[in-house]
Structures are given as structure tokens and as C-alpha cells.
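#struct-queue
[09:14] JT: dropping the first one here, sequence first, then the C-alpha cells:
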Amino acid sequence: MQLRAPAILVATRPHGETAVVARFLTAEYGLVAAYVAGGRGRSLRPVLIPGNGVEVQVSARSDSQLPFAKVELQASRAPFLAEPLAAAAIGWITALTATALPERQPYPSLHTALGALLDAICLAPSARGWAGALVAYEMLLLRELGYGGQGQRPEGDLPEILAAMDALAQPLDHYLLADRRAGVMAARERLRELLQRMVE
């Protein structure tokens, strides 16, 4: 296995003393997990932040071996993680993507939509500019994985968007996150609480 592609980093997990196992979403190869040597070191720690856009080079001697990856930063989301609402949104959508998608199955529309959503979260002046897109991404994820997700991006005021978000909670939990890490839905609940404060 040899590949080089632009990717969105969606998850990292410590491995040993200094390395990480990272999961990357690529348009052509889908979700790819790989070992990054020195991933917790000073030079790579700012690169390996979920939400970052990267160029990843992955290689493995066999399909049964965890591939090794070399990573170059293309777009950093790190400056926006200091803002609680943006951090909660980025944390939720990257965790959802990493948890729900099967590995090495391409979903180019999800890759494109996730990149656009991350840009919107970081560049919009407020959550009103991206909350509808976040719900639309959840719908697209459900649809791409064969679980419905019908409907259009919710438009209108934030209360209407929150109502659409509430309607998706059960399908996401039941179809995509059942028997998975409980903390993933907790990240969505935290985001929902922060968005609600904007209405009150």
C-alpha cells in the first residue's frame, strides 16, 4: 500500500511513548488509519490536531500491517480551538466522521462537505453562519451510509436549526454510533448546549 493525498485529520490516539495512530479522511481512499512516529513531539503535535488539513503519505509492506504515515500541514484549525463553540463543533464532526465511517471506502462527497464545513466554522462571523451546514453534514453522512438522512439543509433562525438538530439525534445515535464510544454523542450534546445559549 502506497498513497499520497490531501486529507483531513479526524482523530488521533496515543501509541507508545511518542507516536500516535491517526485517522485521515481522503477523497480517493476514504478513511485511512496510520502510525505517525513522533506524533506527540514538538514539531508534529501542532500538525496532528483533528480538523487540520494535511498532505499525507502512507506506506505499508502488506495489507495486514498498520501503515506508516508522513504528514505535512496544509491548513491549521488550531487558532480557532481557543473559541469554545468552534472547538466543540470541530470536535464533534471530526469524532463523528472518524467513528461512523468504515475504513478505506471512498466517500468523496463527505470529504468535500467536511472541508467546506470546517472552513465555515473557522471563517463565519458566528455560529449562525455554519450551524445549518453542520446539520446538513449529519444528514449527508446518514444518507451516504444508507440510513436515510432525508431533507435539506435547515434554513432560518437558530431555533429552527436546533429543532432539526434534535430530530437527528436519535438516528445518529442508533444507526451510526450504537455500541461505539459513548463520548462521541456527549460531544454533540455539549455543542447543542452551547448553541442553545445563543438563543436564550
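[09:21] JT: and here's the second one, same format:
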Amino acid sequence: MAIDLKALNHNQLNELITKAQERQQELRKEKVVTLREKILEMIKSEGFSFEDIFGSKAKATRRTGGTVAPKYRNPANPEQTWTGRGKRPRWFTEALQSGKKEKDLEI
């Protein structure tokens, strides 16, 4: 099936490209389904379940960040601290602009 690309106008060429991309996606999806079926057959033939091999979806856990100890303290107001993560607090930026060094603000 040879297509004479030089005979196509701009709109026809764009339509051909779109159809080709859609077909490419369809083939990819078909291949994924076939592969998934093969994998499930292999798992069953060995006497295991999908969950035995890959675990259950419910087990997927998200890592949560714990609390981090403060690393810097505001010399003007010791109650204000910063862990060194995220956006710099205003007092930290102002202290640096006034000539202090990060090392001076460490706890």
C-alpha cells in the first residue's frame, strides 16, 4: 500500500498523519492487552496469583515527610526558626542582607 505523499495537499497530509497516529496508539493498546494476558497466564500456570507476585494495589503507600528539626533561629526573635527547607522566611533573608552569614543563624 504505497501512498503518493507528493500528491496530497496540506489538509490531506494532516489527516493522514492524524489517522496514522491514532492507529499507532490502537496497536500499542492491543499489544499491552496481549502482553498482560500472557503475563497473567504465566502467573496462573505457576500456581500464583497476581497479588502474590506484584502485591495488592491497596498496599501502595505514599511516603510522608516527618517533622524536621529547625536548623536556623532568628537572633532578634528566638521563637522564629526555620528548618532550611522550603521558601526562606523574611527574617532570614533580611538577616543575610544586613551582612550576617548563614553560619551565624544556625542553631
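[09:30] RK: nice, looked through the second one.
[09:31] RK: The chain has a mean pLDDT of 89.
[09:31] JT: good to know. The chain has two domains: 9-56, 72-105.
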